[in-house]
Fold:
Amino acid sequence: MPVGLSRWTMAYFATALGAFLAAQALMAAGVTYPSEAMISGHTLVGVHLITIGWLTLLMVGALLQFVPVITGTGEIGERAGLPSLIAVGCGLSGMIAGFLALDGTLPAAWLAALPLGGGLVLAGLSLVGVIIARALAAARPLALAGRFVAVSLCFLLLTIGLGLCFALAFAWPEAVPWAGRLTNDLTLHVASGLIGWFTLTAIGVSYRLLSMFMLAPEDDSGLGVKVLRLAAAGLALLWLDMFLGDMPIVGPMWKGGLFLLIVAAVLYLVDMARIYRARRRPILELNSKTAAAALVALGVCVVGFATGKVTGRLPSMIGPLAYLLLFGWLSGLALGQLYKIVPFLTWLEQYGPSLGKTAVPRVQDLVQEARAAPWFVLYFAAVAAGTVSGFLGQVELWRAAIFLHLVASLFIVRELWRVRRLRYVAPAGSAGAAAHPPAPVQPVQSAYPGKRSP
Amino acid sequence: MTELAPLLIDVRPTLRAGGEPFADIMAAVARLEPGQALCLQATFKPVPLFTVMAGRGFDHQEREIGGGDWEVLFTPRGTPGSASPAAALDDPVTLDTRGLEPPEPMVRVLAALETMAPGAALEVFTEREPVFLYRELAARGISIESERLERDGYRHLIQRPGPAQKTEIRR
Structure:
């Protein structure tokens, strides 16, 4: 079935990038962790700007385009995309107000905004999540990437559901006592989100994108399925432990779950190394290099986590490790892939209808990798410096490093903007400049009025 | 009848400047008189073009002309595109895009199709299901039939709408 451009993907990307920049600015300014405690209202504002505002919106936006491609179904979320985005945006704003009330920055009455906002986020993501899930269900049996996404969507809903229980327990502890029963420990909420939703989605998408753009076999080793099964089983054990095990969480199921997750991550990294080695493109493009840096960050996280667990020093290491997971692995991978996806979609939108009929620029003509590369180098170097500062307990240095990757992110966003404006195809004002570059933030205008896939 | 001299097109300057000469070549093809040959000079052996030109009914003879440059003489072999659609399906031009980085397969297929006569068929091999290509083909009213191969991707049969089959072009 023909697949067109997702109508709302660019709007999701733009909103997500805005939240990403805002969160980094708050961290650099010393408003949140690492200057503030990890569990504090201000830090929770920063954390949820990154996890919901940045990573979740980015991934949902990407899935709205990516899922039809891997399933071969027509466009999805044409109508629901915008309402979902608005619901998540408003919901997140409400949650932020609620978090500020936790700290006393806002009056206590604002606490109610936390579950209300969380409810809106859940509603928005459920709507778009169900649409994505239906497209996946209709396309069974799924390819590897699709299977990862199907599992990760479950964890998206579990994560938000658990988060909503926290919100209820904070706002109305007497009215909903059962919420407190589920929320003795934040760890499950964090693990479900960081591993179940973000990391599994990132892994699934990476299998497809990296093999596609490096011209490598996607899954001829069969390791990918093992990674998914181990990771899903590991996370399931963590959840079982919460319902069946004794608190605090140190039961054998919990340990077994963590062990399976570590094995899954190691297998995934081994498989990615195979894809890089088996590639038929000798020269790596920028997005493949940044993905390699992100994979290294994931590897360091796994080693750090395992070391911390064995030596018992995990509590003091968990902050920098979570930071590395969020900024090195997930955000690093995402920024690099955006730098590939945005030009590709822009090129398709702008030049698809002219292909074969007239000379059109190549996708590579929409970017200037030499201009973007230094900012990606700065980004990853700053994240590395930030992680080291975190391990050393040097909060001021850590903030300085965050400021540096904020600057790098700003310039990467500027490059993405230039891609959308077709600046590198023909400089603005020149004879060859496009008369109608696409709107930087969609909705995509269909190149074929009246044609909609069934 | 006096034989027409081949039309000479030298795309080496364009290629050396990093440009894409495909449009120039196709413009030259469009300028050819009936029966006239095209003589192309390029900085490499333009193998993909052989397929495209074969689809338009040209045979080719290539030779290296020194310095790594190539000269290709495309000579028309009668009346291209006059075959019936059914005959074209039996004898399609083949384009194997496996091993090309996206979106290059789509670029090549659409380029090849634009140069083919109505009713002519193109057999295409791709590594993945070309979902964006489907969309472009649908928009152009070109039919495609796809099958997944046991290994090594997909095989497609794409046929330009011919005069005799205008009712069948919608997917």
Remarks:
- Chain A touches chain B at residues 1-4, 68-69, 72, 212-213, 215, 280-281, 344, 347-348, 352-353, 355-359, 362-363, 447-448, 451, 453 (CB under 8 Å).
- The CA atoms of residues 178 and 441 of chain A lie 43 Å apart.
- DSSP finds 13 helices and no strands in chain A.
- Confidence is low (pLDDT under 50) at residues 445-454 of chain A.
